[in-house]
Each structure stands twice: as structure tokens, then as C-alpha cells.
Amino acid sequence: MADRPPIPPPAEAAPPLPDAGLLWQALTASIDGFVSVIDRDLRLQFLNRSDVGHLAANTVVGLSLMDFIVPEDRDRVRRILEEVFATGQTAAYETTAFNPLGQTTAYAVRAAPVIEGGSVVAIVATSIDARLLHETEQALRNERQALQQMLRTQERERQLVSYEIHDGLAQYQAGAIMQLEAGLHSMQSRNDPRLADVIRSSSEGLRLMRAAAAEARRLINGLRPPMLDELGIEEAVESLVERMHDIVPVIRYLHPEPLRRLDPDVETAVFRIVQESLSNIRKHASARHVTIVLEPRGERDLAVSIADDGVGFDVGHVPPDRFGLEGIRQRARLFGREATITSRPGQGTVIEVVLPLFPAMTRGDGQG
Q: Which residue has the higher pLDDT, 12 or 278?
């Protein structure tokens, strides 16, 4: 019989917490806002810190909360707090309060019941300066809008460069290939041994020119495939999949139902997320099976999933010089969503992003 593994000793019991009063004191001192305790008469029984115009927090204890709220808000706040006492349910609201100097401040308040013996005996309310919250929210909106504009500009520049390559360099290459093919065919038809060296040089030149043309097509599709603008996201992702067949033995692309044209920003985000995921698979995963799924989720969302059976990695320890995963996360956050990245060493990787399924929009830049 094999030896059983030793039984680990029991973990030492955690030391008891400090006195509840000490914990309450530390907690209320650590909160960047106001914490108050309100009794059933809506009087202040505790305030963790003083506001402008008050000598100390204890100077307001015993006063009615309504004394600090602007008159037009009093009835509404009273009803909300009485509802908390009646139902035992937490409530959130905004109100404007003033101090003895007449200065007013808007607060975002969250009121939670204190239940003892089955009854609500008090309310603990936390109040945060709503102006600061709104300023933070506005700063985040501005940052998101700036990033969206930057990405749109970047995509537009990619599009222009791809057009320049397609309409300029690629056309010259196509013309050169035709000329080389015609000249080579003419020399080969003469069956003149003296042209053997010229034929060999021309054949090599033709090979290199065809390779250059293939590279130009790869650059065009990498910058921004024309079919993304012309045909939509399904065909654009199909072009990415086609280029992976020589790298991954089995790659499946599933879109259970045809997708209508999406908002251009959403189509671009989906394309870049799939493109970056496949790039990571090509560089790092050594995968043998990859599955890509684009599938509507409900009536308003589109789920994008890329799964592989590669080497996987520790999500919490991604090298700082790899920006692909962070790019995927940031593109999702532009739409108020989060990318879910699941991976473990030796167990493959799954990347899923659920984006809003916007209705098709008419472009105003003359593009089709």
C-alpha cells in the first residue's frame, strides 16, 4: 500500500478582531467623505468629520438632518429616509446641503439601515461631494472620447495608407509583372540558347515581383482590409482566418446567423480584437485548434470569442512589453465593457468580449 501523504497541521486560528468601537472609529476616519448616523426622528447622532463652517463634528449632534438640506429637497429626502426605516432597504439619492455660512454643496448619499431585533433603529449614511464625482465622471468621459477620436484618426490614417498602396505601389507592381511575363514568354518562345541567362534573370525578377505584390496585399489587409468597409465584419474576419490556415492546423470560424452592418466603430473594434488575438496565437500559442465565434447575444449585444488550445499563460503575469491584451481590454472599455481573458499554462486561452450591437449607420464621409 502506498504511503499516504502527511496530513497538514490545522491552520492557526486568526486572532480576534479589535473592539467594534475601535473598528468603527478607524473606518469612519478612513472614509473620504461624510459618515453620519441618523435616528428615527431624522436627527444626527454621529458625524465623522466637520464641514466648512463648523467648529467640530460634535457641534451638529442632536440637530435635525433637515436643518442642513436646502428647503426644496427636504420633503423628498424625508420620504426616502422614512422609506428606509419602513422597509429596511438601502437607498441612494442626491441632495444639496448648506452649512451655517450659507455655502451649498451637492452630495451623493447612500443610506443603509441599522437593524436590531428585527427593527430598523437607525440609518448610516455616507455622503460624497457629488461635484467631485461628476468631475471624475466627466474626466473619464473626456478621456474615453479622446481615445475614441484617436483610434478613429488612426484607423482613417491606416485606411488612407492602404489606399495609397493599393492605388499606387500595387498597380505599378501589377504592371511590372505583366511586362515581365510578356517579355519572358517572348524570349522563351524564341528557343534561343543565348537568352538562357536573360531568361533566368527575368524569371527570378518575376518571382521577386510576385512576392512583393503578395507582401503589398498583406500590408493592405493588415492596415485595413477593403472588405471591412465594403462588405462588413463577417468577410473581414474571414480574411484573417484565411491567412491563419497555414499556421494553425484546424481553425473554425462560426457566425451562426448573418450579421447586418454594424456601427463602423464596432466593426473596427471587432476586427482589431480578432486580429490581435490571432496575432498573439501566431507568435506565442503554438496552438493546433482555434475557434472564432461572432454571435448576437440578445437583441443588443454581439459576443466575440477566440479560443485556442495552445500553451496558455498566467494572466496575472503578462510581460510588460506585450501590449496586445491591453489593447483588447482598452477597446472593450471604450464601449463600457470588459474583455474576459481566461488562460492557464498548458490549458489554452479564451478571449471573450461582448460589445453593443448598434444598428447600421450611414457614413458621412462619402465612403461606401
A: 278
The domain locations on the chain are 26-129, 232-361
Residues 83, 91: contact at Cβ < 8 Å? yes
- Cell 440609518 appears where? 123
Residue 216 grid coordinates: 503589398
- Alpha carbon distance 77, 183 (integer Å): 89
d(Cα 350, Cα 321) in Å, to the nearest integer? Answer: 21
Residue listed under C-alpha cell 463577417: 234
Q: Using the predicted structure, report yes or no on whether residue 147 has a pLDDT greater than 90.
A: no
Asked whether 282 and 247 are in contact (CB, 8 A), the reply is yes
Q: What is the pLDDT of residues 19-41, one digit of tens each?
A: 888 888 888 888 888 899 999 99
Cell of 39: 435616528
93, β-bridge pairs: 109
- Do 26-129 and 232-361 show the same overall fold? no
Tell me the C-alpha distance between 91 and 93, whole Å. 7
Query: Is residue 34 a contact partner of residue 46, using CB atoms and an 8 Å limit?
Result: no
Q: What is the pLDDT of residues 223-263, one digit of tens each?
A: 777 778 788 888 889 988 988 888 899 999 998 777 788 88
Where are the alpha helices (H) located in the chain, listed in sequence order? 20-30, 71-87, 130-164, 170-190, 196-223, 226-230, 233-242, 264-280, 324-333
Sheet strand arrangement including 104-116: 44-47, 34-38, 119-129, 104-116, 91-98
CATH 3.30.450.20 assigned to 26-129: yes
Does domain 232-361 bear CATH number 3.40.50.300? no
Strand intervals (E) in 3-118: 34-38, 44-47, 91-98, 104-116
**SS3 category, 225:** coil
